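[audit] Reproducing an earlier prediction to check determinism. Same input, same settings, fresh worker. If the tokens differ from the archived copy the diff job will pick it up downstream; this log only records the rerun itself.
[audit] input (70 residues):
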Amino acid sequence: MTEKKSTPALSRRTVFAGAGAVGAMAAAAAMLPRTPAAVATAAVPKATVDPEGGYQVTPHVLQYYQTAKV
């Protein structure tokens, strides 16, 4: 009779994928502010008009800054 080899429950590929996911989560957690005061002290740019026609802070951009706060 021939015996079939049983495959291991965890393959090397699965282990490395899990380790990569854990590393990515650790990197994301390290970038989060440690205290709520750091978020509260962030300055919101005021609406300005660049005379040379460059970047302009408009009400739409200010709204984006407000919604992007964490």
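[audit] rerun output stored. Observation attached for the diff report: The longest helix spans residues 12-31.
[audit] end
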